[in-house]
Amino acid sequence: MKNYRKAETESNITIKKGAIQFNDGGIHLYEDEQKSVQRKLQKLNERQQDLAMK
């Protein structure tokens, strides 16, 4: 019975670690996407300023 519980606990830990890694990967993708959008917004602001000066 102890071996079964230990195996079950280890299995649950492995599943949870996998979920955490999956979520962490999603967070990194979100951060990269956010940086990309910020860069694009900055470029648009610069273009808008350039047009306003003309």
What are its keywords?
1 helix; 96% helix; single chain; 0% strand; mainly alpha
List the helices and strands and how they pair.
Blueprint: H1 2-53
Describe this structure in words.
The chain contains 1 helix and no strands. The chain is mainly alpha-helical. The radius of gyration is 23 Å and the shape is rod-shaped. The N and C termini lie far apart (80 Å).
**Topology as H/E string?**
H
Shape: rod-shaped
Overall pLDDT confidence: 87
Helix content: over 70%
Radius of gyration: 23 Å
The major beta sheet can be summarized as: none
**Strands, total number:** 0
Which structural class do you get from the secondary structure elements? mainly alpha
| SS strand fraction | under 5%
Helix count, DSSP H or I runs of 4 or more residues: 1
Low-confidence stretches: none
What is the CA–CA distance across the termini? 80 Å
